[in-house]
Amino acid sequence: MKVKENYNVDWTLLASYVTDNISKEDKARFENWIEGSDKNKQIVEEAERAWNLSKNIDLVNLNTGKAWNKVNEKAQILTEVQDRSLFRIPGNFFLKIAAILIVAIFSWYLINKINSEINIKAGNSLVQLTLYDGSKVDLNKNTQLKYPKKFKSTSREVYLKGEGFFNIYRNPQKPFIIHTSNTIIKVLGTSFDVNANSDGNVEVIVNSGVVSLKSKYSKQEVILNKDEKGTYLAKNSQIIKSINSDQNYLSWKTKKFIFRECNLGEVFDKLEKVYDIQIILKDSGIRNYKLTATYEKHEALDIMKMICLTFGFKICENENVFTIENKISSKNQAHH
Hints:
Layout: H1 11-18, H2 24-34, H3 38-52, H4 64-75, H5 93-113, E1 117-121, E2 127-130, E3 136-139, E4 144-148, E5 156-167, E6 176-179, E7 183-187, E8 191-196, E9 202-208, E10 211-215, E11 221-224, E12 228-233, E13 238-243, H6 251-254, E14 256-263, H7 264-275, E15 278-281, E16 290-296, H8 300-311, E17 313-318, E18 321-326, H9 327-335
Helix pairs in contact: 1-5, 3-5, 4-5
């Protein structure tokens, strides 16, 4: 049985939102609609992507009615547009044209992406893949990457949610572009780590080459070189550039950890994140102990045992929950 999904969208308001020509009141109302369901969020994301692709579409020869019919007939994912008054919208001429183009481009985009887009979702394990152009990507756990089977002639564009390490094949004629929810990352050929958090913040650390990090909203752009970090803050749409001081930013990928006079609190935070474990400290003072050590390709249990042996801690493990106790503190409490 074929099921059609009804897209109940105010295309004029969507056009205003996507083209950033919207009042504060309408923006608040529309964003409230967006938050109403995951489907609404998906519609806006797809429309923004379609709008970004519009420069590469022959808009003069784009037939909106034909596009919608093709979507209905071939994809079975949209129903016929009921409100024909769209083409008689009064008011701002720019928004009228933008709304029509949004409909046309959105439908064109959906038609062309059905059999051409690959959607990779990393679950509880890391994922390694090679893209069509030879670029290599490592995805951290719970990360999603969307990309075309074959890149366009002018650029190589992918969409990321989560964290990934990119080793990009150099091609000056076709820049590699990563879209996150709030930023655009552009490179020619380089290697770097991108962490697009669910809270909207984005962190980019460059391992080699040069990377451009740009905000979709404030239009601020920073250029990052080797060992530099760019941090996008969603709360104010600002990007902060700094020197990367985290030697272990790729430990999720390499399972190599280098600690130099690090507080155990920082060490345990990193291990919890990489190995999906929980560490419980019976004595909060344990967090202040300093550790200098290097671990490479060890399991979490082995690292935890080595750390506890180093400091004389007592460790208990149960289903990835590690409880650590300072033997000295426990002895003192026993004497009291």
